[in-house]
Automatic annotation (TrEMBL):
The keyword Nucleotide-binding applies. This is ATP-binding cassette domain-containing protein. Residues 2-201 form the ABC transporter domain. InterPro entries: AAA+_ATPase (IPR003593), ABC_transporter-like_ATP-bd (IPR003439), P-loop_NTPase (IPR027417), RLI1 (IPR013283). One of its GO terms (molecular function) is ATP hydrolysis activity. The keyword Nucleotide-binding applies. It holds the Pfam family ABC_tran. PANTHER family: ATP-BINDING TRANSPORT PROTEIN-RELATED (PTHR19248). SUPFAM superfamilies: P-loop containing nucleoside triphosphate hydrolases. Keywords: ATP-binding, Nucleotide-binding.
Amino acid sequence: ESGQAYKGEVIGIVGPNAIGKTTFIRILAGQIEPDSGYTTSTAFRISYKPQYLDRRIEGCVSVEECLKSVNSDALKEDNWLFIDVIKRLKIDRLFNKDLDSLSGGELQKFYIAYTLIRDADIYLLDEPSSHIDVEDQLSVARVIKRIARLRKTPIFVIDHNLLLIDYSIDRLMVFSGTPGREGHGNSPDSVAKALNSFLKSMNITMRRDPESGRPRINKPDSYLDRQQKTLGQYFYIE
């Protein structure tokens, strides 16, 4: 479906594997052409973090060199990007490391920073929570939301991690269809409505932990699971 993205908002994208989410993002990034219809994203500057990350970037070796190659100002300690991205994601601790020596989580955080410190009109992040622990996922979620607000640019985020989705997004796109054959992406909708629809399609219910406030998946056929399904509240916000 057609839709609009607004300045300063984060749009989440969820759906089963092999349903077309990455294809959609790659179309927005200008990497592949759509079979039909059109997109105006090619008129904008795009910064894209792919799902699969390369340990080699042409023209640089270390983390610091690679970050400098896209925005040298962001590495100055008084720069807002250094404070809000580099420092929050603890990338400054990795400056002297080569990309090929980073762990999976470190490489993921590097690429998130590498993508977000670029000057762009639209940011695209495919699976930014992959390989990173829960606390770092929360940091990534906060960084994504803050960058969208401060840069006044839309950010699209594909992720299976509902913790990151819950903490960072403003609206949500749900993809459905037959995996590996055809997929359909709905227009961005409210988080509550779209996530409820997605969880219903997966026959999963979630609650919000009363102590941490984090979303938790209910045990299948538990009291809460049955109660929420009866009420039609697969994503229980209150």
